[in-house]
Design a protein that fits this description.
The chain is mostly helical. It has helices at about 5-15, 25-30, 40-50, 55-60, 60-65, 70-75, 80-95, 115-125.
Length: about 130
Amino acid sequence: MNKILETELLNKISGTNAKQCMKCGKCTGRCPSYKQMDLKPHQFVSLLAQGKIEKLLESKSIWTCLSCMACVERCPRGVAPANVIEAVRDVVIRAQGANGIKAEEIPEIVDENTPQQLLVAAYRKYNK
């Protein structure tokens, strides 16, 4: 797939306009897992706007994102970095031809004390 088609696909899946980003970094400042990310939320949006798709597809951050949407709440322009990260994750999963985890593979550590937000985020992350 060429860069233009990949960029259009990621824009369509994410439902956000990456070119609206003003690169303020507020999304990254709010991200609870930014220290573990090789690409920060604002960098995902910036690279998408520039059409640098290869870096996005190779990033380990697509698996580090918690899908908590804190970055979306913080954005003054209504850009949704988490949606961009999830769109990239979807493209990678589709290219692999597999899903990340099956229900029967959920670890036994998940019990009634597990936060519901974690379960919802995991469901959204692995069942696209």
